[in-house]
Amino acid sequence: MKTTRLVTAFLAVTCLVVVSCLALVSCSSSSGPDGAEEEAPPTVEGVSIADGETDVGLIERIDVTFSESMDPSTMSRASILVAGRAPWGHIEYDDYTYTASFIPDTLYAAETWHEFIVSDSVLAADGEAVEPDTTVFCTGTLDTDHLDDYNEPNETPEAAVPIALGKRYRTLSITDGDDQDYFEFTVEDTTKVLIHAWMKEVNGVSWVREFQTADGDEYWSAGTGASTGDSFAYFGYTFHPGTYLFNTHAHSYQSGWLIYDFMLTEEEPCRDDQFEDNDFIEDSKLVTEGITDFLLGCYSDRDFFRFDVGGGPDITATVTATGGYTDGTKRVTIYDHDKTVVAQTTGSGTSISASYHAIEIAPHYVSVMFWDDDVEYELDLELE
């Protein structure tokens, strides 16, 4: 009798194990009722911020990586978003890494809990919905320490971030503690590059933009006061084939910041004359006393010339516009042998002049600049 009970118990346990195993196999099976193989749905494999993370930056870009190729047309501000007093965002998707990036349009609310949500409205390339996912995080305080953007660190020319012409870069920051943003771009042909900018948050700073060569030589810089909501399209420069730097920085007298978007676009270049490329003093072209004509000037594009002087001559450089917008603003600058500015005149009208009494028998330099495109001009150099 005892033996019978033992056998019965053994069979019961065995059946339970078998049933459990069968159930486990059934749950993990990739086959449907008709025997067809079913693939696992797409999932969120990782998020760049941890669930429950605190002290998150106020313009933090959030990257979400999926398990397979996704359909970017299903990614929108309604399907990938940050909830909880949060701004709308823009989504960028890289199919090579299966990664979508959420870039906030403005600042998150400070010291506030938010939810980063990936909804089942996001579809894989084959049309299957992703399993929804939510990550909770809390932002830090409203100060410059929490306003780094996703390009940091890029405060030096050596750390410049490569960018593409024609692409809008969103929600970048400049602060008084991190007041330099460097970007690198390359042009294949002679072209004019135009700056577009959008001001999103401005607190106690003015904004300066400049172009530089890859070696750090400055083309030209210009500053402006900025207000939230401002947008700009200005400062076109003609570039010859090569790699260049675009630098933005802030001037501030307090703990201020600026949040901005920008984009560089290409346009038809200004016409060149026979002396180009002479945009920098190191590339200045030799001229002699008298009139050098058939020259062409472009907006904010300096032309440099070099000339030899004897001891003690008085130098007068006169620029006369002969075609195009002849009465626009123009500048003529004289440099000594150390390439230091010694005389400069800026004005409008057909002609302007600058003068200097040289004290060294050595090469000197003169540059000409216009605030208009396609100005025809002549340079009259007098040495007395």
Model description:
With 384 residues, the chain is mainly β. It folds into three domains: 44-142, Sandwich (Immunoglobulin-like); 145-267, Jelly Rolls (Sandwich); 281-383, Jelly Rolls (Sandwich). It has one helix and 24 strands. It has one helix spanning 2-28; strands at residues 44-47, 53-56, 62-66, 80-83, 89-94, 99-104, 113-118, 133-139, 161-162, 169-175, 180-187, 191-213, 218-225, 231-239, 242-267, 285-286, 290-297, 303-308, 314-323, 330-335, 341-347, 351-357, 363-370, 375-383. Strands 9, 10, 11, 12, 13, 14 and 15 form a seven-stranded mixed beta sheet that branches. Strand 20 (330-335) and strand 21 (341-347) form a beta hairpin. 29% of the residues are buried.
First CA to last CA: what distance? 134 Å
CATH class division of the largest domain: Mainly Beta
Please give the share of residues in helix.
Answer: under 10%
Given as residue ranges, the uncertain stretches (5+ residues, pLDDT < 50) are: 1-32
> What fold name goes in the CATH topology slot of the largest domain?
Jelly Rolls
- How can the largest sheet be summarized? 7 strands, mixed
- The total strand number stands at 24
Beta strand %? over 45%
Tell the overall outline.
Answer: elongated
Helix/strand/pairing category: mainly beta
Overall average pLDDT: 86
Domain unit count: 3
In CATH terms, what is the architecture of the largest domain? Answer: Sandwich
SSE pattern, N- to C-terminal: HEEEEEEEEEEEEEEEEEEEEEEEE
